[in-house]
Design a protein that fits this description.
heterodimer, A: 116 residues, B: 4 helices, 0% strand, globular
Chain lengths: 116, 130
């Protein structure tokens, strides 16, 4: 597998994890004791979210076996961009012009970092 | 008077936690790279490094969840972005990777981009925030 494909997969899994955890955290019940807290934490959003958070580092370590650490780590910046975009599209979170310009700057930085 | 003292204590604790979050970041990245470098070594070595990676990632995540309750996102994002510089320096000293002008420029742009996003978060009305 291409190491960059693995890194993109990691970014997707991390983003998916963030979205699912955000969705699932709304279902957590606090104030009714520890048992109901733990029970409410085992909802399918949080479980799926944890699954994607657990698999993402495997892809990262695979990519690291092929490319430099400094190159691979830059891709964590892409997660911020994909979280902003997917948060806006799927969770209808508000974004500003700063988010858009910031995301473009991050993409430019990522490109320069990896192409040169 | 009492309130001032308490704030000082809070700030010291914050800085300590922040310091630990950088240590876990560095530890996680180093052990991830080591895990991928020791694929030919006995399996236990690789598994240990992989376990270390997970432990560091998890601890760092938990620390940030806690820190984000206490500090504003507009401060937190730039603090997180210091990680890019940290990892570049680590990879230079520990793994003999070169810091090209492109990497330095790219890292600066990533830091700027994160700053912009954090400013955007700061401009959102409080209701729309997480």
């Amino acid at each position: 597998m291409n190491p960059y494909a693995a890194l993109l997969g990691m970014v997707c899994l991390n983003t998916l994890g963030q979205l699912l955890v955000k969705r699932g955290s709304g279902r957590i019940l606090t104030g009714n004791g520890a048992i109901s807290l733990v029970k409410s934490m085992i909802n399918h959003y949080l479980v799926l979210g944890s699954f994607s958070v657990i698999t993402a580092p495997l892809l990262y370590m695979y990519a690291l076996s092929k490319i430099d650490l400094s190159a691979a780590y830059s891709f964590s910046g892409l997660t911020y961009v994909s979280v902003v975009i997917s948060g806006h599209l799927l969770l209808h979170e508000k974004i500003t012009h700063y988010h858009i310009i910031g995301s473009l700057v991050i993409l430019a930085g990522l490109t320069i970092w990896n192409i040169t | 008077m009492k309130r001032g003292e308490r704030n000082k204590k809070d700030i010291i604790i914050m800085c300590l936690l922040l310091g630990f979050s950088y240590i876990f970041l560095a530890g996680g990245q180093i052990s991830a790279k080591m895990a991928s470098r020791t694929l030919d070594a006995p399996k236990t070595v690789t598994v240990l490094f992989a376990g270390g990676t997970y432990a560091c990632f998890l601890l760092r995540g938990l620390l940030w969840v806690f820190l984000l309750r206490k500090i504003k996102l507009v401060v937190a994002y730039p603090l997180m972005s210091i990680g890019y510089v940290l990892v570049l320096v680590l990879s230079y000293f520990l793994f003999d990777e070169v810091i090209t002008p492109g990497k330095a420029a790219g890292a600066s742009l990533l830091v700027c981009g994160l700053l912009l996003i954090s400013m955007g978060e700061n401009r959102l009305p409080v209701k729309a925030k997480r």
